[in-house]
């Protein structure tokens, strides 16, 4: 479907966009500058439309900051995990991988070989006495 869009740079030119929202970058046939079809603004170089929406929304930005500050990524599947309370033995709700919250060490290795499998800077680390 073809939809009309004005150039976001004010050159006075408009054009039909082939593909609508599936074709978000519209290059003006007069000034050759790029307009975002979805946002009807100058093209947001380096950002997808979703990234642009997040950048423009302060509530989403605040949520993203909170997630980065308070959650960690599962070492196996990268799903974000929040630790509310309790011990540091975590199980990912998505992939069921078990790991240490403090150092992200694999709990299977810890069970099999002992606490020296934790990172040496982790509070749960214990030297191996062989």
In the predicted model, the low-confidence regions spanning at least 5 consecutive residues are: none
Strand content: 15-25%
Radius of gyration: 25 Å
Described by the principal axes of the CA atoms, the overall outline is: rod-shaped
Query: What is the string of SSEs from the N terminus onward?
Result: EEEEEHHEEEEH
Catalytic activity: [E2 ubiquitin-conjugating enzyme]-S-ubiquitinyl-L-cysteine + [acceptor protein]-L-lysine = [E2 ubiquitin-conjugating enzyme]-L-cysteine + [acceptor protein]-N(6)-ubiquitinyl-L-lysine
InterPro entries: E3_UB_ligase_RBR, IBR_dom, TRIAD_supradom
Pfam families: IBR (PF01485), IBR_1 (PF22191)
EC number: 2.3.2.31
Keywords:
130 residues; alpha+beta; 3-stranded antiparallel β-sheet; two-stranded antiparallel sheet; 3 helices; 9 strands; 22% helix; 23% strand; TRIAD_supradom; metal-binding
Briefly characterize the structure.
With 130 residues, the protein is an alpha+beta fold. 22% of the residues lie in helices and 23% in strands.
Structural account:
- The structure is a single chain.
- With 130 residues, the protein is an alpha+beta fold.
- It has two domains: 2-47; 73-117, no CATH class.
- It has three helices and nine strands, in the order βββββααββββα.
- A hairpin with a 4-residue loop joins strand 4 (34-36) and strand 5.
- The mean pLDDT is 92.
